[in-house]
Each structure stands twice: as C-alpha cells, then as structure tokens.
Hints:
Layout: H1 3-35, H2 59-63, E1 85-88, E2 91-94, E3 100-109, E4 112-117, E5 120-123, E6 128-132, E7 141-142, E8 162-165, E9 170-175, E10 185-190, H3 197-207, H4 217-223
Parallel strand pairs: 3-6, 5-10
Antiparallel strand pairs: 1-2, 3-4, 6-8, 7-9, 9-10
Amino acid sequence: MDIVSIRKYFYTVIIGFAVTFIFAFNVSAQSVAENIRPVSQVCLSGQACVGTIADSRSEEELTTTEEEPVDSEQATTSLAELDVTDNIGQLTISADSGAVYEVQMLNQGADGVMVFEPSVLHVRPGDSVTFKATDLGHNAASIEGMIPAGAESWDSGMSQDVTVTFGEEGTYVYQCTPHLMMAMVGVIIVGDSNINLAAIKDAAADKKASFLMEQNRLDAYLEGL
C-alpha cells in the first residue's frame, strides 16, 4: 500500500470516529435534558416563567372543597345560655319552665262583678299562671285547705301581679281576700282534678257561707270539672 492510500484510509477512520462521537454525544445530551425537565415553575426577573405550577398538596386535597371554619359567635346558643329568669310580682320563674298562662283580676267580667278571668283554668304540672292585677284593689291568694297536699300557698299582695308555678296535681281554689264576700274566687286544675276534688267540694260548702252574693258561683265552677 502506497503512502497516498494509507493517508486516505487514516482520514476515513478519523472522520468516521468523529461522526460516531458527535452522534453519541447528541443522543446522550437529549436524554439528560429529558430527565431534568422542570417540575415546578421558575420565574427569572425580566423573563417569562418556565415549567408547570407546583403545589405541595396532594391530588385528593386539590379536588376536595375546603370547608370554612365555623364562627363560634354564630353557633347556636346552648340551652344553658338561654336559662334566664323573668321577675314578675313576688316570685321568679325560669325561662325553661312549662307554659305560662294569665288570669286577670277584674271588677267586671263574663261571670259578673268582682271576678277572676278565666275563672276556671286547666294546666299541666310544671306550668305557671300569672295573676295580673288588671284592675286595682285586688289580690290573688290560695285558700288554706283548698289546695292539694304538699302544694305551696301564695299571696300576690294588693294590686300586684304574681306568677305561680304549679307542681302538684289536683284542684286549687284561690280568692281575692277583700272581695271574698262577693264570691271573688277562682279555680286552677293541674293535671288530674280528681286527686282532691271531693275534699275541695266539702270545703267549698263551708267557704260559701261567707259569700254575701253569688253564693252558687264556686259550686258552679266545681260542678263543671
């Protein structure tokens, strides 16, 4: 082989090696570039942001609607916070007691002169009754021996309102003390009236002896029970 042929062969080998090296380098560079793609957004001053926005939250967290915290001031007030008292007359009742009814003290009503209205009232144990001095000069007072055993007596005082809570079942008879002679009496039935009704009717026979007018009023009230 002459010198010219040797040179051509040498140059061919060198060129082939160079082409192979350059091709291999480009493939490697492309692979490296694919493996180092940005996974978060990078923003350089004066240049556009590159990449995708990264979020540290999981996919489940991103797809779940976040609930706003409950404002404690807007939460429903507990029953204990609503347990207030209302002062009426001489007695105090709690806001969480039973129903409250009203009986008026009147000079003139549906049953005539000097009456309580309604004259007969049915309530349940735990309910309350407000005796209201609508007309002055009256009181509302329980009559000794004409309320159930164990029940507490009451007296509003003259021209004063009073609220009484009834806990004991049975029949209660009460009066306006200065107008008892005019048969100004009333009846409250709490639950079962028969618990002491017979004893009340016996006591009523003696009580009406002090009436100067409307002597049959109390009997009529009791007969209607």
